[in-house]
Amino acid sequence: MKSVTLTFTEDEAEILVDALETDLEGYEDSAKDARANGNRADVATFTEAAGRIKAVRDRIRAAIDA
Predict the structure, then answer these.
(1) Maximum pairwise Cα distance, the chain
(2) pLDDT digits (tens, 9 = 90+) for 18-40
(3) Per-domain residue ranges for the chain?
(4) What is the C-alpha separation between 12 and 27, in angstroms, rounded?
């Protein structure tokens, strides 16, 4: 997998974290809806996406707090 290096100000990184959290909420809501509808494939897809978003968000937060 190709790695990309970007540089952001702390404010810009916070904006990215906020955007990721908003996106995360959407995927979590979609997973809940899919679960309620019994759509296991969509539950897995949305849950996986939410997990990947959390990982990126947490990496950015760690960089901000470093």
Answers:
(1) 43
(2) 999 999 999 999 999 999 999 99
(3) 10-65
(4) 23
